[in-house]
């Protein structure tokens, strides 16, 4: 039995690409020979945080025009924005003063 053809995924937009998870995704895509693109509010910070070869596109996720421009020409989108460990300043709920009444942190799966 023949396998179905795999789509040719080359250019990949990463939303949340400057977070800890997004940076790993970008680096892995480069290792695989793909062309990662990151939508970011702060292009200077993104250029410092990301490896060479990642295309940086300035824009806000809440701006439809910026999102349309960022997805133009991509083959896939990876969404890491909002991942609990993505910002580098994550504090588990059990330790955060505003939510100290929570007994356990439940990680997203």
Strand content: 15-25%
Please give the number of β-strands: 4
User: Structural class, from helix and strand content?
Assistant: alpha/beta
Chain-averaged pLDDT: 81
Shape: globular
Strand-and-helix sequence, N→C? EHEHEHE
Distance between the termini: 34 Å
Q: Stretches where pLDDT falls below 50 for ≥5 residues?
A: 95-109
Q: Enumerate the strands of the largest sheet in spatial order, edge to edge or round the barrel.
A: 3-2-1-4
Helix tally equals 3
Major β-sheet profile? 4 strands, parallel
Question: From the alpha-carbon coordinates, what is the Rg to the nearest angstrom?
Answer: 17 Å
Helix content: 10-25%
Task: Provide tags for this entry.
109 residues; 4 strands; alpha/beta; 17% strand; 4-stranded parallel beta sheet
Descriptive account of the structure:
Helix content is 25%, strand content 17%. A 4-stranded parallel β-sheet has the order 3-2-1-4, sandwiched between helices. Mean pLDDT is 81; it is low at 95-109. It contains 3 helices and 4 strands. It has 109 residues and is an alpha/beta fold.
Concise synopsis of the structure shown:
It contains three helices and four strands; from the N terminus they run βαβαβαβ. It has 109 residues and is an alpha/beta fold.
């Amino acid at each position: 039995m023949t396998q179905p053809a795999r789509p040719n995924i080359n250019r990949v937009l990463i939303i949340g690409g400057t977070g800890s998870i997004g940076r790993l995704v970008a680096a892995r895509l480069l290792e695989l020979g793909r062309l990662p693109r990151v939508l970011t509010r702060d292009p200077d910070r993104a250029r410092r945080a990301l490896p060479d070869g990642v295309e940086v596109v300035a824009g806000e996720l809440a701006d439809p025009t910026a999102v349309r421009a960022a997805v133009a020409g991509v083959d896939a989108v990876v969404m890491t924005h909002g991942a609990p460990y993505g910002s580098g300043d994550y504090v588990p709920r059990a330790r955060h003063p505003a939510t100290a009444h929570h007994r356990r942190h439940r990680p997203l799966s």
